[in-house]
Write a structure and sequence with these properties.
The chain has 613 residues and is α+β, with helices and mostly antiparallel strands. It has 10 helices and 29 strands. Helix 2 packs across helix 7. The chain is elongated.
Length: 613
Amino acid sequence: MTLSLYRQQYGADGGLDARSADNAIGRTSLGLWDLVLRESLQNSWDARTDKSGPICYSVDEYEMSEYQTSILTTEVFSELPPRCRSTELNKFVHQKRIRVLVISDSGTRGLGGPVRADVSGGQGERRDFVDFVRNLGRSTSKGLEGGTYGLGKGVLYRASQVGLCLIYSQALHKGAIQSRLIGVSGGDGDYDDGASRYTGRNWWGVPGVDGIVDPLVGPSARGLAERLGMRIPKKDATGTSVMVVAPDFEGVTSGRERVAAIADAALKWAWPHALDLGKGPNIRFEFTADTVSLPTPEPLSHPVYREFAAAYIEARQRLMDPDYQSNWQTVFTPIRMQRPKLTSGLLTHRISHTPVSTGSELENSVALMRDPRMVVKYLPVAPQPNGVPIFGVFISTPGMNEPFARSEPVTHDDWVYQKAATERNTPNPVRITLDRIRETFRVLSAQGAKAGSGVASKGASRVSAALGSLLSGFSGAGAEVQEPSDTPRSSGTKRPRKASIRQIAESSLDLLDGEVVARYSFSLSGGRPGNVATVSVDARVVTESGGNEASSPEHAESPRFAGWVSGNGLLSSAATLTVAVPSDDVITAVFTQPSDAAIRVTASVEEVEHARS
């Protein structure tokens, strides 16, 4: 059966041109394929049949065969409107073939409800079909889901060089699963044709008595989708597939790159749903380009997203159990307000597994999220002075979901506090939350910059490396932590008679042969010329109470001495180093840093008098 074209005319009472949804997206820092992923995946997640999932989300790009291309151009889009992007469809057929991108889901309810926007439907019946296919905007009766505007779907038409999509869906209708298929165009401007003016909105389907087309339904719809090579739900399942005809090449040079860009966007924005937290991931992804499978998101295997994922996993534990305590790498900070008195969410930040920068733009940022736990934005925060990357997540409380959602633009990629309207002289919870998150890291940065620069108490001092994850204690005559000095000693100054040790720089993390190590630099002062000093160091895991562990628990990782180094390289691998005094050299003790514990290093010095002849 050949589908018919319906061109929407302006009514006497006005209307909206086809560019409205596309224009509503406005300016955004997101790339096209990030927008496509975010909008389509959000629609799929909102349509899940089970509140907690799982759903399947797939992206397939392929070049249609000559047979499939013929069906698309002669049975689906045989009639083309004038003065629209879709008018040029046949220019994108090369050697009797055309490329298409198909985005599909399952475990979702499909596009059910009435097929006409002016029909009310039954009591409590959903209107998913007309909301996605016919209407622009979003009915307030749908309540708050991931999307709040219903305009973001315009990006799907933007993704097509001809502004064309073919929509196939299976949904429950009168107690049975019904297949529906309809073609839609978007992103065109309005135009005149003869004495009539058209909005630029077009549909391809089965004409009704009034000339308006409805979807092709039943076995004919399913058969047509199958002949076009679309991935569609099983006969007894519900779900939706959207074909983007002649996909755009913005930012890519091939179909494989395009699908890879969408897969990368899935990792960046939807990694919380790719985590297996005991029952499998909430969303099962699949990506193919010309039948070749591409990697799916694995956040825990990625050098950057594993840090966010680890913080997120810890945050979930804390939200489920307020008494849950994590290790030294993780810090929980509830974001609270006084007026009104409430908690807007939980900020959880985590020190990187490795102290070396990954070069990612996402270092030192916080992933902002609300329900449904898609990342809204990565909020940059103050870096720490020791250079160790920080990764955080902020999860809003259920009661704050709506204020945060209302603060988002159509693309849902920011929290704009000005959009979260409040009564006059009433605190804005969105602004306060963002300010508190930023302030948390400004304070940590300032504290880190000061650490190691003043005199510490005897026994132990907290240093800035890894935000206080390393503890040092130096014993011996005059043991203390001091600033290194570039001022040479006066020749008239007498050296102390007794050798002493001092830490002269904050502790730092580094990589040594692929292993994370902590470096403690110090120098000797005093000592009688001709004598030698023996310097010894020891490291212990610090308990939650701040004391040293008497012994390491079975299978627990313990700090291991890796050696003494100076500017000239390795000095000794023995824990005790002999140095001639007096000495102006800076020497550094290196210990392996356990991944789940803080350590305290203790150093002592003993001066030994050489026998003189």
